[in-house]
Each structure stands twice: as C-alpha cells, then as structure tokens.
Amino acid sequence: MTVRKIIHLDMDAFYASVEQRDDPTLRGVPVAVGGGPGGRGVVAAASYEARKYGVRSAMPSSKAARVCPHLHFVRPRMSVYVAVSKQLRAIFEEVTDVIEPLSLDEAYLDVTENKLGLESATEVAEYLRRRIHEELQLTSSAGVSHLKFVAKIASAYRKPDGLTVVSPGRVLEFISPMPVSKLWGVGPSTQIKLHSLGLRTIGDVASAEPDLLATRMGKRGLYLRRMAQGKDPRVVRARSGRKSRGSESTFAEDILEVDTLEGVIGNHARRICGSGHGARTVTLKLRYDDFSTITRSLSLDGCTDDPAVVKAAGITLLSRTEAGKRPVRLLGLSLSNFADREAQRQLALPFEE
C-alpha cells in the first residue's frame, strides 16, 4: 500500500507580510491590515510584531489601537493579494497538479508523485519554501505527513518560517499531547462537549470509550476518535470549479455591536472577492453566544465579484438576524452559484453602503 506524501503549506501573516514587503518602512514594526481605529474598522490581518501585543484578526481596530498604541494601519489591497496568490499557485504547479487550495494563502499538496522526481516530501517542501522566498520575497511554513490533518497541524507548529515533518511512526507521539481544539473538525461547540466528557487532549479522545462517545456525540464522536488515533481517510482533492468561496472569523470575545459586525463583513467581502469569477448568491453565517448557528442567503439579480456589492448584501442579511440583540461569536460570509466569466454581467448596485 502506497503511503501518501502530503504537504500543507501556509503563508506567514500573508496580507501583512505583503504590505511589509512592498513598503520597507513597515518592516519590523507592528502592522494591521484593515480599517483605521477612527470608525468601524476591523483588523483583517496582523503582522507577527502586532500579534505580540495581542492584536488579532477580526478585532475591532479601536481595540487594536489601544492594546498596541504604535500600531500601523494599512488598507487592504485585495487585487495585490490575489495576484500574489496566483504566483504562489504557479509555484505549486511546478511540483504537482494535485493541489487543494483552502484560501488565497494556504493549500494541501499531494507530492507522492511529484514533477521534481524527489523521493522525499521533506525535500519537496524545502524546494517550495525556497522558491516562494526567492520569487515572492515572502516566508511560508509547511507541514509534512501522510495524513491531511496532521500536515495542517504541523505547518503551524514552528511558525513563522518553519518546517515540521511528522513521519507515520511519530504521528501519535506528535498529536496526543495537543489540545482537542487542534483535532480536525473540532470547533468551539464540539470542544465544549469533549471537555464535558473530561477529554482535553487528542490522546484523551483516542483512548476514550467508544460507547461513551457514541452515546454523547453520535457518529461524529466515533469519527473524532478514529482521527485522534491517526486515521484520516481524506485525500487531497484537486479542485476544478469551486461551488463556493467563503471566509469566517471566530471572535475572541462575543460581539454585540452591529457596527463592528458590519466592519467584519466588509473584511470578508474583500477576502472572497477579486478572483474575477462572479457569483449570484451571498450567504451570511452567524453563531450566537449559545452556539446556535444560523445562515441567511440572498440571490442577486446578476453575478458580481465586487466587494462593495457583496458587503452591502451581507449587511442586508445581517439586518435579518438578531445581531445587536444577541452576542455573536462567529461570523462568516460566502459566495456561491458562480457563473462562467464570459457569461457573467456586473450587478448594478441595489444597496446603499
């Protein structure tokens, strides 16, 4: 049986790093990409220098300015980030055609058979990181494993500018001490359920009684147990023709202010637009403080890739929720129902900003 060789490659503080690359005065200083602190601004991305002060994505810019008074705010340039992402994809394609992008700045690559003819996935990862640094003047972090979720955990293990290799024989040793939140598919709600069962590490889940997990969590509990035991059946799937494109944020603190949520919507709209492929349907996802989750969708009169249109649609959808009355812990925005580029026509703005 062939052992898969999977790389998860993730750019380091992508938006902020691009800004620091393009403006030498920003290098080595705390940078936040997003709206300024004077209005409804929200941080879309933070440099590692800013993260040391507690600045995080989805944080209101006013709060970011308080925790880091010398923070430099930079307006997002999505067209630039998209262009860099295309360059990144071209580098990936030098190595393999089995690429599963997760966002503009991260992807899984199956390099079991690679165009470089290298036997070692570690060598392939080193090649990719070197090429990215040489061509894009940016750093990246990579994780190597035969399992997708382990490769993703590994890519974050030595960030920034790190490489972590987890051989098949080291998987359990590597993942068992980690908190359950690192396990693929475990969000805040599932984490609370696992903690209520006394399961706090991945190793705890691996050794949990299957009957207990099945009773309290159903088939999902058993699936997580198998994952914790180092059994991830998923393969890297090359994507052709995505059905949806989205972005979401889980907040460190629940948000009640509608203005702040509207700012987050604007950030997500900029993230998911700019590909040149218009979509007709905008969907808003909200998770309230009690972990109940809702979605609201809006079908437009035509296809659009304009972040202003998508933001306006998202704000309209927000008005159809209990935002402002109930604290929100997660907000997501997505596009679907894509049209061929040749067939799409730009939507005339039906919404006011």
Unreliable sequence segments: 340-353
- In CATH, the architecture of the largest domain is 2-Layer Sandwich
Cα separation of the termini: 57 Å
- Name the assembly state: single chain
Kindly describe this structure.
This protein is α+β, with helices and mostly antiparallel strands and about 350 residues long. The chain folds into 3 domains: about 1-165, Alpha-Beta Plaits (2-Layer Sandwich); about 175-230, 5' to 3' exonuclease, C-terminal subdomain (DNA polymerase, domain 1), CATH 1.10.150; about 245-340, Dna Ligase, domain 1. It is built from 13 helices and 12 strands. It has helices spanning about 15-20, 50, 60-65, 80-95, 120-135, 150-155, 170-175, 190-195, 200-205, 210-215, 220-230, 260-270, 305-320; strands at about 5-10, 30-35, 45, 70-75, 100-105, 105-110, 140-145, 165, 245-255, 280-290, 295-305, 330-340. The strands form 3 sheets. A 5-stranded mixed sheet has the order 5-6-1-7-8. It has a 4-stranded antiparallel sheet with strand order 9-12-10-11, with helices on one face. Helix 6 links the parallel strand 7 (about 140-145) and strand 8. The chain is globular. Residues about 340-353 have low confidence and may be disordered.
